[in-house]
Structures are given as C-alpha cells and as structure tokens.
Amino acid sequence: MVNYKELGLVNTREMFKKAVAGGYAIPAFNFNTMEQMQAIVMAAVETKSPVIMQVSRGARNYANPTILRYMAEGAVEYAKELGCPNPEIVLHLDHGDSFETCKSCIDMGFSSVMIDGSSLPYEENIALTKKVVEYAHQYDVTVEAELGVLAGVEDEVVAEESHYTKPEEVIDFATRTGCDSLAISIGTSHGAYKFTPDQCTRDPKTGKLVPPPLAFEILHEIEEKLPGFPIVLHGSSSVPQDCVDTINEFGGKLPDAVGIPEEQLREASKSAVCKINIDSDSRLAMTAAIRKYLAENPSHFDPRQYLTPAREAMKQMYIHKIVDVLGSNDKL
Ligand SMILES: O=C(CO)COP(=O)(O)O
Ligand SMILES: O=C[C@H](O)COP(=O)(O)O
Ligand SMILES: [Zn+2]
Ligand SMILES: [Zn+2]
Fold first, then answer.
1. Torsion of CA 184, 189, 190, 193, to 10 degrees
2. Structure pTM?
C-alpha cells in the first residue's frame, strides 16, 4: 500500500475548484509509453500547467501496471529536473470497470480513479460508484463517475443507442454517490471516427466533413442543477487534419476521420467542464511523425531515430491543447 502523496502526486480536488472558477480546463492525456509520458511532462512544465496523466485498462495490459505507476512517480521527478519545483501531476485511472480495478490502483499510488458504471442500470451505477467513493475517500483519492452513454465505433455503441446525460438525474446521482466529478455525454465519443459521414455536412470549399455541434444546452442545464460541480468530457480529440493527411500521404489509410472542433472545446473549457480527455490526438501525432520519418529515411532502424520526432510532435500537440484550447497554462 502506497499513498500517492508519498510519490509527490496530487488529487483533482483543488485543481478542479480552480479550473471551474478560472474558466479553464485541465488536460487529461492518456499514456502507454515512455515517450508519451516524457512529452506530457515537457509540455506541462514548459507551459506551467497542471496535468492529469491517465492510464486505461488497456494501458495497464500493454505496459504493466507497476511499470506505469513508476513512470508516473518518475514523471514528478522529471518535472522537477526540468525546472518545475512544485509540479501538479495527477495519476488517474481512466474508465475503471470494477471496484477491484479501482482499489488496485488506489493501493498502488493513484491519486484519482474513474469508475465507469455508465453502461449499468442507474441504481447499479450509483451503488458501484458509491462503493468506490467510500474506499477512495479514506485515502483522499478523488473519484470521477459517468452518467450517460457515449456513442462511437470504439465504444461499440451506435448513435441511436447512445444517450445524452439526463440533467434531471445529476443532482440525485452526485448527492447519493459522493463522486468528485462527473463525466457526461453531450455528443463526444472515443477514437478517430467520432461521426459517420452521414452525421456530418461537407464544407463546400474544402470537401472536408463538418461534424454536428455538441449539445451545449444539456451542459448548461447540468451546470444550473449542480453549480460549480466539476464536469468531465471524454472523447475530446480533435483529430487534427494535418496528422490525418500525413498518415494518409505516407502509406496510412484513415479516410474521413473526424473529431471535435477545437472551437467547441475552447467554449466547453470556459464552463464547468474542468477535465478534457485527449488520447487519440496523441496517437495520431505519434503515428504521423513515425510514418513520415520512416518513409523519408528508409535505411534507419534505430527506434530512437523515429521516436525522437514522434515525441516532439506529441509535445507540440500537448502544448497547443494547453495554451490554445484549454487555457490551463501559467497556473503553477
Ligand atoms: O476519452 C478519452 C479517454 O478516456 C479519449 O478520447 P479520444 O479518443 O477522443 O482521445
Ligand atoms: O477510453 C479510451 C481511451 O482512449 C483509452 O483507450 P485504450 O483503452 O485503447 O487504452
Ligand atoms: Zn464510459
Ligand atoms: Zn474516455
């Protein structure tokens, strides 16, 4: 049993309070590899931003839970080495599926966990979330819950089956579970294909897909019901067209990939939305840089050669999100 405070990590409580009051959002970047972790820390230090480093169950399977935990501990030390004496780094479990997964993360030093009971019946979601909250709060670990179902290919949910969060449920849910933040469904979804072409319109000039807007009216209703309560947006990658184009130019095949326009994330950041989850954009930046590098340098085979520009591309992407979209820079 290790408490996150011994590792120099922080929970989300104060961070979210300041973000809601200040009209900005904290970036929550997923990491699976050392290069992603380094790029996240470099970007956060350079921009003086608090940051949430999050680990999915898939990441734990890929990289090993213990290794990821030590990487997060290393991230705190690395931030100090880069010149940030008091970094604010959260180690968060993304989409925890059971009490046991959440407990295992809390016991190994995570400062925040998500329990995703969104696919369960309402009362079961409440019971599971409450159980995780009761355990987590003993160790001052914060808990994110989810209400409403995200659509999208990655979630294997078709648009008709997805449902937006019902504003009339949020007070009851937040009160009875005691959760610290709430992920809601207002039209975002996971992955690089957030909308099918028939859900979009086409820009007559560029021929590019223009996705439908997020349901801001639902977000605003939720804000009215729970004033100041921290709201989380999953599935918030923008799927940068330049990355998609580079991938396609150098042998990839991502036709009609489409994300959430940054303008809408900028607007959301100013509201009670105080955590914005971005994973796919990091994958796209990394893959685009690697494909380009290898196509242009066919004789190179040292991973450090192609992972260096890949890490740099992710770092620039993270900096762009922090400074130009979420507004969490200069907060340390
Ligand atoms: O929500 C996410 C992680 O929980 C990531 O969403 P994206 O697939 O849009 O990056
Ligand atoms: O929720 C989705 C995140 O992007 C994590 O994805 P993953 O489960 O493939 O690691
Ligand atoms: Zn979910
Ligand atoms: Zn998610």
1. -170
2. 0.97
331, part of any domain: no
Residue-by-residue pLDDT tens, the chain, 332 positions: 999 999 999 999 999 999 999 999 999 999 999 999 999 999 999 999 999 999 999 999 999 999 999 999 999 999 999 999 999 999 999 999 999 999 999 999 999 999 999 999 999 999 999 999 999 999 999 999 999 998 776 676 666 556 899 999 999 999 999 999 999 999 999 999 999 889 999 989 988 889 999 999 999 999 999 999 999 999 999 999 999 999 999 999 999 999 999 999 999 999 999 999 999 999 999 999 999 999 999 999 999 999 999 999 999 999 999 999 999 999 99
Domain that holds residue 164: 4-326
In this predicted complex, what is the ipTM? 0.97
CA distance readout (Å), 226 to 148, 167, 180, 196, 256: 16, 9, 12, 33, 37
Q: What are 3's two structure tokens?
A: 């408490």
CA of 29 to the centre of ligand 2 (A): 11
How far apart, in whole angstroms, are the C-alpha atoms of residue 264 and residue 126? 30
Q: Is 35 in the pocket of ligand 1 (CB under 6 A)?
A: no
Quick check: is 332 in a domain? no
Among 280, 318, 326, the mutation site with the greatest number of ligand 1 atoms within 8 A of its Cβ is: 280
Total number of domains in the chain? 1
